[in-house]
Design brief:
Elements: E1 2-6, H1 10-21, E2 25-30, E3 41-45, H2 47-54, H3 58-64, E4 70-74, E5 80-85, H4 87-92, E6 97-101, H5 102-111, E7 118-121, E8 125-129, E9 132-135, E10 140-142, E11 145-148, H6 155-160, E12 168-181, H7 183-189, E13 192-196, E14 201-209, E15 212-220, H8 230-237, H9 243-250, E16 259-266, E17 272-273, E18 276-278, H10 281-284, H11 293-310, H12 314-344, H13 349-361, H14 368-372, H15 383-387
Helix pairs in contact: 1-5, 1-11, 2-11, 11-12
Length: 388
């Protein structure tokens, strides 16, 4: 069996690993010239953690993870308003959580690939022609399965399931991420995930080591259009948020080294057309505010590979994957829209204060698991149950 996967991100790399493990010939292409350096810190837990454990990569995940001791909110003068020991989050998830930079997770998965996998950067699927994936380098591959793992703005999805504007649900926010080097800023955030306690916009900071500081930013805007210059947009949107933010903005790298995009979800009734299917954000982006996109990307790719392995045909395996996995991601998307967005980025002082007191209450015996649980929900069905 032969597969062409478009997109060498988290979902595509996971799927390539698993299909090759089950004896498939795998061709993995990505339009970027090489592995991406841009990305933000994520809390990796839930079904993706379970899938990496099943793949024998749990120890590697621990090695690639970055230590976080405290989640801290600060005001405009850099003063701590509330902090939570990260051990509470780990306790609520029975230790199955890792804080990791998104590029580091991709590197972990990339290094897990077997030598027999054909990985090509600077190449993408140009068109689909009678079951063949015609690539941008002029070659064509007659495949049993063609997979779009090429993110929220998926080209494969546009080729088989229609226009992006018909399935993209804009959540009214833009986000950006970058890394800068500053010894003084690093000293302020080392071992912590520091967030500004602000309305309608927020910046987060984490010390990576070697005086490097990872930054993510998110702000509300009714206009989904992306700016021509993301660095200028970040400096304009996040000015006046305190010394730490000003230091970050002053040292923001050139636009080609900045990640910048809409905060959005992909909402589709189905992910497949014939031998073509979608995984990860291409199928079901849940958005930054949901906090589980990477985990669901890994887990969904794992479920697809296992169902294909256990089914009598590609069509049956793909259909079974959709039937099992679609309700899982739909629940996460709905929760993000209904509950998480206002907690993540408050629009009023009253909601901000309510969040502050909720974090303070987490330190009280008996309330820690009760209040932490909704931030890191556990699925009712395990990846093992969904895969077998």
């Amino acid at each position: 069996m032969k597969a062409v996967i478009c997109g060498a991100g988290i979902a595509g790399l996971t799927l390539a690993n698993r299909l090759h493990h089950h004896g498939w010939e795998v061709h993995l292409v990505d339009h970027a010239p090489g592995p991406r350096a841009q990305g933000y810190m994520i809390d990796f837990f839930g079904p993706g953690f379970e899938a990496l454990t099943a793949m024998g990569l749990k120890d590697r995940l621990r090695q690639f993870a970055s230590p976080v001791e405290e989640l801290r909110y600060v005001d405009g003068r850099g003063r701590r308003t509330v902090g939570v020991d990260y051990a509470l989050f780990s306790l609520a998830l029975d230790g199955e959580i890792a804080s990791i930079m998104r590029p580091a997770l991709e590197r972990l998965l990339r290094e897990s690939l077997a030598d027999g996998i054909d990985l090509r950067y600077g190449t993408t699927i140009d068109r689909l022609d009678d079951g063949k994936a015609v690539l941008s380098d002029g070659s064509a591959i007659d495949a049993d399965l063609i997979v779009g793992a090429d993110g929220v703005h998926s080209r494969v999805r546009s080729l088989v399931l229609g226009r992006e504007e018909d399935c993209l649900r804009y959540l009214g926010m833009h986000t950006g991420a970058f890394v800068f080097i500053d010894p003084e800023a690093f000293a302020q955030v080392r071992g912590r995930f520091v967030l500004t306690e602000t309305l309608n916009r927020q910046m987060g900071f984490y010390g990576l080591g070697d005086d490097r500081v990872a930054v993510f930013a998110v702000h509300r805007t009714p206009d989904p259009a992306l700016p021509a210059d993301p660095r200028a947009a970040l400096r304009r949107q996040y000015a006046g948020m305190g010394d730490l933010a000003e230091r970050a903005l002053a040292q923001c790298p050139p636009p080609d080294q900045v990640y910048y995009d809409q905060v959005a979800q992909i909402d589709l009734p189905g992910w497949s057309d014939g031998r073509v299917t979608l995984v990860g954000d291409a199928a079901h982006a849940v958005s930054l505010v949901a906090g589980q996109g990477a985990s669901l990307g890994v887990a969904g790719a794992y479920v697809l590979a296992e169902r294909l392995h256990r089914s009598s045909s590609v069509a049956e395996g793909v259909a079974d994957y959709e039937r099992r996995w679609h309700p899982v991601v739909a629940d996460v998307q709905k929760a993000a829209r209904d509950r998480v967005t206002e907690w993540f980025l408050p629009t009023s002082s009253a909601r901000l204060v309510l969040r502050r007191w909720a974090f303070r209450a987490m330190r009280l015996p008996g309330l820690d698991r009760l209040l932490v649980g909704p931030l890191f929900p556990k699925g009712h069905r395990t990846v093992a149950e969904l895969s077998t």
